[in-house]
Specification:
alpha/beta, UDP-N-acetylmuramoyl-L-alanine:D-glutamate ligase, eight-stranded mixed β-sheet
Length: 335
């Protein structure tokens, strides 16, 4: 019996986003407090669309952890699988907002609670009772969360639960970008679905460090050179059956193991904040996938959720409901 439509695994945080939109980071005088972390965002986004979702993360025995748990419970996201780590801190993220293209991001993840997730924690979760397991690749950057993530994927595969990995490459969370590639490629062997940006695909197949350049140490999205088409082919050889590529305002594309390609156009909107848009996209795609929609319709739903979110201030707090997403799609000409 399936108790959950979706379980997401990985990081969670308090997100402190600049209220001084347009101001350089060093001139910020006020922050708004939200919640974040890719798996948390996706769990909330999926729940607002009507799916029953659970989050597998960890928080510290601190007020920030209580802040996150209170928000999740209010949203209706299952928190029963979230352990409290007494000797760790709930993580934090600070973000400057300078639309349309500059969003300096600072992570505070030293002694981070969600990095302390263990195999024992995963064993207490109802992986077999989910229709889909989603894992953030940032959880693979350090032990013990890395082994726990691999164990969660093994448990999912053993019980016939599809595994979706969000490639979620954050360069400043890895001691060497090549380590990300090696680890992500190993994890992909447990996954039937993967989602990522073009840069994340290149990072996944990265072996030559000369291919990567960090534009700004405060921005975790690097500039990586390489051949995206070759990266797509390589990822599909790992065992992944479906690769979903996020392309921002250009929409998204789905590449299947049999060679089928589906392109779904995006929606044009005025950008306020791009952070979290990929997670809203993932929630929308997951909703469509679990509804049995085709990939075009699923990705249009994902594109719509992402487009709505970039017009907002934060991430999880502003994910659209199903009604809001459908109304937006209809206003833009439908699927």
């Amino acid at each position: 019996m399936k108790h959950y439509d979706l379980i997401t695994y990985g990081r969670s945080s308090i997100d402190l986003y600049s209220n001084n939109i347009g101001s350089p980071f060093e001139e910020i005088t006020e922050f708004g407090a939200f919640v974040g972390g890719s798996p948390l965002n996706i769990a909330v986004g999926a729940r607002r669309l009507g799916l029953k979702s659970a989050l597998l993360t960890a928080v510290g025995n601190d007020m920030v952890g209580k802040f996150l748990l209170a928000f999740l419970k209010k949203e209706g996201v299952e928190t029963a699988f979230i352990p409290v780590k007494d000797n760790a801190r709930t993580s934090a993220v600070l973000l400057g907002i300078e639309p349309p293209a500059n969003f300096p991001l600072v992570y505070y993840r030293d002694n981070c609670a969600d990095s302390k997730m263990t195999i024992d924690d995963v064993m207490k979760a109802d992986i077999a009772g989910a229709r889909l397991l989603e894992v953030s690749a940032t959880a693979l950057n350090i032990e013990p969360s890395r082994s726990a993530a691999f164990f969660a994927a093994e448990q999912a595969v053993e019980h016939g639960v599809p595994v979706l990995v969000d490639l979620d490459f954050r360069a400043d969370q890895w001691h060497d970008p090549r380590a990300y590639g090696v680890t992500a490629r190993a994890f992909l062997q447990h996954c039937s679905l993967a989602v990522g940006t073009e840069e994340e695909l290149l990072a996944t197949m990265l072996k030559d460090p000369s291919q990567i350049r960090i534009r700004n140490q405060q921005i975790s999205a690097p500039e990586i050179s390489g051949n995206v088409d070759e990266a797509i082919k390589a990822i599909l050889k790992t065992g992944v059956k479906t690769l979903i590529v996020k392309r921002g305002e250009r929409g998204s594309s789905v590449f299947l193991h049999d060679g089928t390609v589906t392109n779904a156009p995006g929606f044009r909107v005025d950008v306020v904040n791009v952070l979290g848009a990929g997670d809203a996209f993932a929630a929308g795609v997951i909703y469509g996938y679990l509804q049995g929609w085709d990939w075009y319709k699923s990705c249009r739903m994902g594109n719509a959720c992402g487009a709505i979110l970039v017009t907002k201030h934060g991430c999880a707090n502003f994910n659209p409901t199903l009604k809001e997403a459908m109304r937006f799609i209809e206003s833009q000409g439908g699927f």
